Amino acid sequence: MSISRRRFLESASAALIGLSVKSDRRDRPIPGGFVNDAFELGHKLRDQSSFPASKRIVRLPVVIVGGGIAGLSCAWRLHKRGFSDFLLLEMNAQAGGNSRWGENEFTAYPWAAHYVPVPGTKSRYVRELFEELGVLVAGQWQERYLCFSPQERLYLFGRWQEGIEPAIGLSRSDRDQFRRFQDEIQRFRASGEFTVPMEVGFSTRTAELDQQSFSSWLRSKGIDSRIVNWYMNYCCRDDYGATSEDTSAWAGIQYFASREPEEKGPLTWPEGNGWIVRRLLERLGNFVHTGQMVHRIAVDKKAVSVFAGDTKYEARFVVFAAPTFLAPYLVLGMAPLHDFEYSPWLTANLTLERLPDSYGGDPTWDSVSMESPTLGYVDATHQSVRTHPERTVWTFYWALAQGSPSENRQLLLARDWRYWQEGIIRDLERLHPDIRACISRIDLMRMGHAMARPRVGAIFSHERQHLRKAPGPILFANSDLSGFSIFEEAQYRGVIAAERVLDLLG
């Protein structure tokens, strides 16, 4: 039976005070710390702190605020269309948002987003980008970018199985419910109303699905199997950072119905989606200014003024590609938002000197445990041509999905690095008892507003639909306009904003 987040945190707390851990292992110091922390800057905006006065003015037609995938995609599209009179301002020292990456002496590794499902024909902008980057050549996906086999495994009933959908130890009722669920999904897929990007097939005919939770919709279909519901809940936590009870039924169905059942892939790299960011920055580096925190945006009849550091940028149009919840803190006169909720996440990169003795067979890209409240880990060296790398990095994912996002954000900041380090090790020790002896370093990244949470009513929210169609001079472009955060949605929003800007500029 799956353990609750509270029980897991209690076990982590017990480990911290020395319970249930042998002293020779507990006393072994493991270096590391928090990286990429930006919450103090964000809290300065929230608390309306004072900022330095502007010392210079820069005038240009377009300013992009936010250097995640949406902002970079907007810049990519502007540049590709031959427009170069713009700048992108990014608060952090490294661009990429949820697609940032790190490196050590033997591999690069992701800090969050680590793959892109092979895009179908409706994701034409993603396919266009991948053609430019050499990932898609003459209609063929290049093998070195497709995830090597074995791809995924799930630990359940004391053993590993290939694939994350439970397939062993199922009763006849479990199998029947999986089959009936797939029949429902096939019906939705055939309707053409669940697509990636979502706006291609978006239809108000499915609006009623947004008014109930995914778990309540499952119950209405007679799907009450513990194992089936664990899998549905895992999928929501993995893509949305929310439980199935807190996820809109529309978003839960979108997760399955928007993809082909036998799609090839996914596409992945050692640094995850950081590989895409690298390639974009090679093309756009001169336009991207990092370490530039925008602290005020003011609109008047002649221009949009963007204040960052000691500079005032006067632009005709601003593409707001940062998370939309920040806009009311920046844009003078903008009303507070009510329908935008975000899931807090913790990710960790564990440097391993060797694989645990209990690891099993061939190295697998993604490993998940059915008994864990976390999302498991991916192996950064899985794409390596080396058969068995001696050292590797595991990226560990923990969506704080259960409970209130605001309370979980407080927890994320209140607990120190060793608390979370110990919680992660304790979780992994249930799979790999000797994992502590294998780790030489653990670094953690806290993301209080990591991704949009598609709660009930989020997708068809009037507030969200209004911002999607905002006429300017501020155009919104973050993936949270879709109600959920995936690469394809972020890229689509950025590209569409670029096209609209070019149309408005004539």
SSE map:
Elements: H1 5-16, H2 23-26, E1 32-34, H3 39-46, E2 56-59, E3 62-65, H4 69-80, E4 86-89, E5 101-103, E6 108-110, H5 124-132, E7 136-137, E8 140-141, E9 152-156, E10 159-162, H6 172-191, H7 214-220, H8 226-240, H9 249-257, H10 274-284, E11 288-289, E12 294-299, E13 304-308, E14 311-315, E15 317-320, H11 327-330, E16 342-352, E17 366-369, E18 377-379, E19 392-399, H12 405-414, H13 417-429, H14 435-438, E20 439-452, H15 462-468, E21 474-476, H16 487-505
Parallel strand pairs: 1-20, 2-14, 3-4, 3-15, 4-11, 9-17, 15-21
Antiparallel strand pairs: 5-6, 7-8, 9-10, 12-13, 13-14, 16-19, 16-20, 17-18, 18-19
Q: Could you characterize what this model shows?
A:
The chain starts with a helix and ends with a helix. The strands form five sheets. The protein has an eight-stranded mixed sheet with strand order 1-20-16-19-18-17-9-10. The longest helix is centred in the middle third of the chain and has 20 residues. It is α/β, with parallel strands linked by helices. The chain folds into three domains: 137 residues, Polyamine Oxidase, Chain A, domain 2 (Alpha-Beta Complex); 171 residues, FAD/NAD(P)-binding domain; 91 residues, Guanine Nucleotide Dissociation Inhibitor, domain 1 (Orthogonal Bundle). It is globular. The protein is built from 16 helices and 21 strands.
